[in-house]
Specification:
Structural class: alpha+beta
Number of strands: 10
Radius of gyration: 16 Å
Helix content: 25-40%
Number of helices: 8
Largest sheet: 5 strands, mixed
Low-confidence stretches: 4-26
Distance between the termini: 27 Å
Number of domains: 1
Order of helices and strands: EHHEEHHEHEEEEHEEHH
Oligomer: single chain
């Protein structure tokens, strides 16, 4: 799922504050397009030929930050039960693009997507480590950010959410990545889009935070 829904599972946060996690399909979607292009045009052969989980790290666009490395992902995978990653073809850390940057403060902003038995993670805009809003997001969304280490504070009638590089890394590893993995684990269940998101949210809470078997964020 986009961290937003198309024919593939996606996990989306809409806008800088992510007040909802809707799974709407949009005609213009530079995130879904990037994942589909990477799968079919860049990595199709290696993803379908390998018996191991393929991890690819693309050079990050200068305006973006990819908070996790290939080693971080490998460590995260090894920290989870093997059954969860059975059938997973790959994890691709994409570079980001100018088109994604243009929509990064709007409804299309996306952290990651589960597509074609692969997890695609998108880099985070450097200029959005601190974002502001006139109100707080929904409580459960706020909790998801805060448990990864994001900080909310109020100043001059605005609310500010601040990510450090360390807390953003934790958010990607324990929230976004594990949420998308939850969609992989749940891929054979015939759930509605809403119930699929509820399951992936539960999965991220249970296996990203409550049952952590390894130290993701301290691995270089």
């Amino acid at each position: 799922m986009l961290y937003r829904k198309k024919t593939a599972h996606k996990y989306q946060r809409t806008g800088s504050w992510a007040k909802s996690k809707q799974t709407n399909c949009n005609v213009f979607d530079p995130y879904a397009h990037a994942a589909e292009y990477a799968f079919f045009e860049k990595y199709y052969d290696v993803l379908n030929a390998s018996n191991e989980i393929v991890i690819k790290y693309e050079n990050t666009h200068e305006k973006f930050l990819m908070p996790v490395s290939s080693n971080d992902i490998a460590t995260a995978i090894n920290s989870l039960p093997v059954a969860f990653t059975r059938g997973l073809k790959g994890v691709i850390l994409l570079s980001g693009s100018n088109k994604q940057l243009k929509v990064s403060r709007g409804n299309l902003f996306c952290f990651g997507i589960y597509y074609a038995h692969c997890i695609f993670l998108f880099p985070y805009p450097k200029d959005q480590l601190v974002v502001s809003s006139q109100s707080l997001p929904a409580p459960h969304i706020q909790r998801e950010y805060e448990r990864a280490g994001a900080i909310y504070c109020r100043k001059n009638n605005l609310w500010f959410r601040t990510f450090t590089k360390e807390s953003l890394k934790k958010f990607y590893l324990r929230e976004v990545f594990v949420h998308e993995l939850g969609h992989h684990v749940d891929r054979h269940k015939k759930r509605t889009a809403e119930k699929s998101e509820i399951y992936a949210d539960w999965f991220a809470t249970e296996y990203g935070f409550k049952r952590v078997r390894g130290s993701y964020e301290n691995h270089d």
